UniProtKB/TrEMBL annotation, chains A, B:
This is sulfate adenylyltransferase. The keyword Nucleotide-binding applies. It is found in: Plastid, Chloroplast. GO terms for molecular function: adenylylsulfate kinase activity; ATP binding; sulfate adenylyltransferase (ATP) activity. Gene3D superfamilies: HUPs, Sulfate adenylyltransferase.
Length: 467, 467
């Protein structure tokens, strides 16, 4: 994959494996922004405190849940003696999310008190009486036999596919997994066909296990994209290095077209008008589980890369990174999670679109959620009062300009709306969208993707090739 | 109906219609506790401020939504010119609830912002940033034809069965009624057979209408029980008159047995031990819609009366009144509403039982809610931090004492648990429960009720007769 000038690297140690890089590498992090565990005296976890001008993480500090490097071997040996729980791919994504502090101040998979507050209040009250947002249950399901295996143990080892211990969950609490109630309160429906439910809940166990998580080795996917997976701490460092005085996050799980680019450029302009000197964009594609008909992460990253190469977005003021969370498609409930996690990564502005995290109703011919509810719920959500919500302005193809532009209701006849479905149909048929809808390089990636999809005998999608 | 010495009257004007009363009538209300509209300058509503030692209402003041008596005729004439919405029986119960300020600071049926916050957060943020609990949607549904009828009008008249205007809803907002989402988020299930859903939602309109409510005439039922329907303001006056320094509320919708009585007596004892000088019990049966197999309000009130006559509870420190809300059977969601409404009536302690507002799952052989979730959710609920939650201690029949007693786990063999089902079966078969389970007069009422039920040809239950 060719280089993207605006991207930051995951860790400097990865550089050697890359070619043709002209990344700006955050080697010289301001020391004051990273409190080493030696200095804080905490054991087995790195705790970060407020950096410069950035918004504070939820709960006042970023909770990272890594075992100290020097303790890893010891912990691995400890883990081998514990009852084992095998993690699914999505479980592992949540371990990743938790370990890096996206869900701060959560210290592990939810115990029942946290689960109930999430389901009923979309927020959790902390010991000091303050409230943080938490709308999506981050839970680990086990079945009867696993529960029996755990017996009276107070800790368990979380192991990967090959039984290697990934993490330890300690001071555990096991409680009932009422799937119906969890689904109804999270999605506002129990209709069969919800992608995350089918994938991760329906066949999961009847118990949930919560506890304090410590990750032995940071989660890596070895898919060529780990270098894009910056943790909240790393993103905060990068924003500080760039002297950002505002960070605006754009969550996406679709190809970027020029309407998106217009919106992001316009947002920066508005922030400058508001008096900010250096607003930085966090372009933050979701990297965890997505439904089968979404464009896979690899192809999306390739498309984003082409868009950035085309210079549609300014590399100096854009950080592209992958958000490791799996996707729930839970509309107004999930958009809160998407926003809250970005606070922890240092974003104080959040761009929210029409029907965020929405999808079609699995059974009925309508959208599952009201298109305006995401924005409304987000703006009223407990624990998100500090976050500035920026509603998405509607962009459409302006025939008079041969370009994407903000829709002008005084001359609707000049605009064409190109829906996601329309875009996919064009790409599948190798047709071109109107000039100016998407940069040609980005469009080519999309066409290639659908081409590979059609060619794939077993429906499995090929990885994109470097070009 | 014979008199109950501990009951307060609804209004002194009703006394004339009663015989054999030896009620304590709150004729001499402390003037300082009632802010007349003349003094506050508010028009068309009575606003109450904090009384003595009682807990403050949600939002700081009790919001009553009555048209001033002098303005009623004028408003009635206004109403006749407005588009009309006919209220169902349950709608009217909500008008009653709203008008008396049980849902303070709500000023009428919910607009969409309030509805969404209720569904997602079980709480509403006020303009000053503070949060009040609100877990159950208080909404008014209309159908397409009613919506068309309203057209561009900004106010509507709410009319009763006979088209008499009951109230005016002004500054209205009409928004979509997504029934599936409302049901899923309120009940945590969409299984068919939820009583309130079948009764009030399934066949209701596809739109909700919110706005500011003004009630022209206070809602009366003319069923002989209106005198028991004290408003929050009247209850506060009564507690103040009795110099209560703590008020503990007991919500019920079932016959009272000696286990309940033990609990209530024991609660008072504990509050005295805590240093309160005069804790007063609000024995507060729910009076609105209940499901078909619950004992109807008339029979329950008759049963409560017998229990009180038997002297099981101390009339000096007990206020019996009817809570006008309809029942949702929404478990942990609804118990918050039950508690919040009682704050508005002056209660600062709330007794919560096992599985409050719970019922069997309509389809599966299990309880709909985990029996402990109600208590847990209540104790964590936003906006209820000021309320003291008193968990119900388990009482059972102690064979060694021939009386109801708190269950002693060290000698389980000495206790019999008499479930509601068991109690109903005994009463239906005209059998007696063990001595000391319920006072004989109260039991007799239950037997009579089930007798009348069996005898009723068309399934309609007879009213209890005075004895």
């Amino acid at each position: 994959m060719a280089a993207i000038s605006s991207l930051s690297l995951k860790t400097p140690t990865k550089i050697q494996s890359l070619t043709k890089t002209h990344y700006s590498i955050p080697l010289n992090l301001p020391f004051s922004c990273r409190s080493k565990s030696k200095r804080t005296g905490s054991i087995g976890s790195r705790t970060r405190i407020r950096c410069g001008l950035l918004i504070e993480p939820d709960g006042g500090k970023l909770v990272e849940l890594f075992v100290e490097e020097s303790q890893r071997e010891l912990k691995r040996e400890d883990a081998l003696k514990l009852p084992k729980i095998k993690l699914t791919k999505i479980d592992l994504e949540w371990v990743h999310v938790l370990s890096e502090g996206w869900a701060s101040p959560l210290k592990g998979f939810m115990r029942e008190d946290e689960f109930l507050q999430t389901l009923h209040f979309n927020s959790i009250r902390l010991e000091d009486g303050s409230v943080v947002n938490m709308s999506v249950p981050i839970v680990l399901a086990i079945d009867d036999s696993q529960k029996n295996l755990i017996g009276g143990s107070t800790s368990v080892a979380l192991v990967d596919d090959e039984n290697n211990p990934t993490a330890i969950l300690s001071d555990i609490e096991i409680y009932k997994h009422n799937k119906e109630e969890r689904i109804a309160r999270t999605w506002g429906t129990t209709a069969p066909g919800l992608p995350y439910v089918d994938e991760a809940i329906t066949h999961s166990g009847d118990w949930l296990i919560g506890g304090d998580l410590k990750v032995i080795d940071p989660v890596k996917y070895n898919d060529g994209l780990d270098r894009f997976r910056l943790s909240p701490a790393e993103l905060r460092d990068e924003f500080t290095r760039r002297n950002a005085d505002a960070v605006f996050a754009f969550q996406l799980r679709n190809p970027v077209h020029n309407g998106h680019a217009l919106l992001m450029t316009d947002t920066r302009r508005r922030l400058l008008e508001m008096g900010y000197k250096n607003p930085v964009l966090l372009l933050h594609p979701l990297g965890g589980y997505t439904k089968a008909d979404d464009v896979p992460l690899h192809w999306r990253m390739k498309q984003h890369e082409k868009v950035l190469e085309d210079g549609v977005l300014d590399p100096e003021t854009t950080v592209v990174s992958i958000f490791p969370s799996p996707m729930h498609y839970a509309g107004p409930t999930e958009v809160q999670w998407h926003a809250k996690a970005r606070i922890n990564a240092g974003a104080n502005f959040y761009i929210v679109g029409r029907d965020p995290a929405g999808m079609s109703h699995p059974l009925e011919k309508r959208d599952l959620y009201d298109a305006d509810h995401g924005k409304k719920v987000l703006s009223m959500a407990p624990g998100l009062e500090r976050l500035n919500i920026l509603p998405f302005r509607v962009a459409a193809y302006d025939k008079t300009k041969n370009a994407m532009a903000f829709f002008d209701p005084s001359r609707p006849q000049d605009f064409i709306f190109i829906s996601g479905t329309k875009m996919r149909t064009l790409a599948k048929n190798k047709e071109s969208p109107p000039d100016g809808f998407m940069c040609p390089g980005g469009w080519k990636v999309l066409v290639e993707y659908y081409d590979s999809l059609a060619a794939a005998e077993n429906g499995r999608v090929a990885e994109p090739v470097a070009s």
